[in-house]
Amino acid sequence: MTKSYEFRGREAPILEQLGVRVIVMRAGTFVDLQKSMELTLREEVEALLYEAGIKAGRSSTKVLLREWGKKDFMRRWAEFYSSDGCGWFKLEKAEVEPEKGGVVRISGSFIAEEYGRSEKPVCHFLCGFLVGVFQELLGVELTCEETKCAAMGEQYCEFKLERCDTDLANHNQIKRQTSAKSSRY
C-alpha cells in the first residue's frame, strides 16, 4: 500500500492523508480516554462512542470513496485499516447486504487488545464505525451489536449489523438529538 502522508508548512506541522488532516494516537491513549469516560459517564459512554463511530465511519468512507471509487473498495478498505495502513484491525470477514445486514469479523482490534480483560464487549466506537461505513456504502440505515469481543477472551471481535426500518431510524435520530441537548453544559 502506498503511503500518502504530507506535512503542510506552518508553525506546527499538520499531517494529512488523502487530503484530510489526521493525527497519530497511541491505541492506549484512546482506551485511556474510553476508560476515563466510563468512570464518569458509565453506560452513556457506549452510546457516545457508538455515535462518534458512526460519524467517523461515514466521513472516512466518503473520503475513501472519493479517492478510490467503489471498484475493489472493500479490499482497499481492509488494507487501509490493517496494520499495513493505520493499524486499527485486520478484516477477517465482511458479509453485509442492504436487505438484511450481516456480519463483520475482525482480529487485532486496537481497542480490545489495549483494553484488557472485560466481562462485556468494549469496541463501541468500532461498532458505530462499521455502521457508518456500511450505511455510506449501502445507502440504508443499520444498527450494530458486538456479539464477540477479544477483550472477553474470544479469538476475534464479531459485529452483527441489521437493517433498521425508517421509524426506528427516525426514533433513534430524535433520541440522539434530545440526549445531545440535555447533556450540554
How is the CATH topology named?
Muramoyl-pentapeptide Carboxypeptidase, domain 2
**What is the percentage of strand-forming residues?**
15-25%
Runs in which pLDDT lies below 50 for 5 or more consecutive residues are 177-185
Net shape: globular
Classified in CATH, the superfamily is Trafficking protein particle complex subunit 3
Query: Largest sheet, if any?
Result: 4 strands, antiparallel
C-alpha end-to-end distance: 44 Å
Give the tally of structural domains: 1
What does this structure look like?
By secondary structure, the chain is of the alpha+beta class. It has a single domain (28-182), classed as Trafficking protein particle complex subunit 3 (Muramoyl-pentapeptide Carboxypeptidase, domain 2). 47% of the residues lie in helices and 21% in strands. It contains six helices and seven strands; from the N terminus they run E-E-E-H-H-H-E-E-H-H-E-E-H. It has helices at 27-41, 44-68, 73-81, 110-115, 124-138, 166-182, and strands at residues 5-8, 14-17, 20-21, 90-97, 101-107, 142-148, 157-163. It has a four-stranded antiparallel beta sheet. Strands 1-2-3 form a three-stranded antiparallel beta sheet, with no helix packed on it. Helix 1 (27-41) runs antiparallel to helix 2 (44-68).
